[in-house]
């Protein structure tokens, strides 16, 4: 009995030592930094930022730290804010709107990998050899949105509305229609770039809002909506079936992995948060997971 107790104590002590060593290694590894402004932090939510950062930190086995700057911070201020958080980060993720700040940071820290997150709006860009450039994967996102829309339209009318920004409508429509075709659906899909383009509130089986047509939510209809947004899923209006998130935090895990591999250009799919699984069949839910 005493021998068994001794073995148990030694095993527990050894386990604690290993955990402590791993924790020290985790803390000491160079962190991944994500630059953003206060407006984004307020929109995304402090609790959500903490949970997303923790998840990504554990997945990468290195700390992920958010560098929050004031909304009106000058380009020359941002590099100093980054340096205050870490002098030798693993990599720094700059959203496209911080392009000039990223350039200044590179001048001061030429050996630190800099990731420029282009989002889904900047499809035409000039490659900069100083940055690793990653964009939102429009094809993957709208293909998965099409899979959800096909499932939501089952047994309903054949009309779907998709609102997008003008610059991505062509790529988005190709991917969306391909998903419907792959599901054997012949839905009438109407693509818009503004809510004013609808002559009247038609009877849709599903609506996709991707940066345009947000006024549709004010109609208080019972039509299921797929919403592309950075707003926390817990705060979106009723009727939202799925939330599509391509924020810097949502892309951080994939971006840091690509940066570690030295990939210069890549596409990153968004995170899909399905809020009402009862309205989507299980096969479609599985396809959404497997598509990316």
List the helices and strands and how they pair.
Elements: H1 2-28, E1 32-37, H2 38-44, H3 46-60, E2 64-69, H4 77-85, E3 91-95, H5 99-108, E4 114-119, E5 132-136, H6 138-152, E6 159-164, H7 169-182, E7 188-192, E8 206-210, E9 225-228, E10 240-245, H8 248-260, E11 265-268, E12 271-274, H9 282-291
Parallel strand pairs: 1-2, 1-3, 3-4, 4-5, 5-11, 6-7, 6-8, 8-9, 9-10
Antiparallel strand pairs: 10-12
Helix pairs in contact: 3-8, 4-5, 6-7, 6-9
| Total beta strand runs | 12
Largest sheet: 6 strands, parallel
* Average pLDDT number: 86
Q: Proportion of β residues? A: 15-25%
Which secondary-structure class do the elements indicate?
alpha/beta
Distance between the termini: 53 Å
Low-pLDDT runs: none
Number of helices: 9
Q: Care to describe what's here?
A:
This protein is of the alpha/beta class. It folds into two domains: 25-137 and 248-269, Response regulator (Rossmann fold, 3-Layer(aba) Sandwich), CATH 3.40.50; 139-245 and 272-291, Rossmann fold. The protein is 41% helix and 21% strand. The chain has nine helices and twelve strands. The protein has helices at residues 2-28, 38-44, 46-60, 77-85, 99-108, 138-152, 169-182, 248-260, 282-291; strands at residues 32-37, 64-69, 91-95, 114-119, 132-136, 159-164, 188-192, 206-210, 225-228, 240-245, 265-268, 271-274. It has a six-stranded parallel beta sheet with strand order 2-1-3-4-5-11, sandwiched between helices. α7 (169-182) links the parallel β6 (159-164) and β7. α3 (46-60) runs parallel beside α8 (248-260), α4 packs across α5 (99-108) and α6 packs antiparallel against α9. The longest helix is centred in the N-terminal third of the chain and has 27 residues, at 2-28. The radius of gyration is 22 Å and the shape is globular. The termini are far apart.
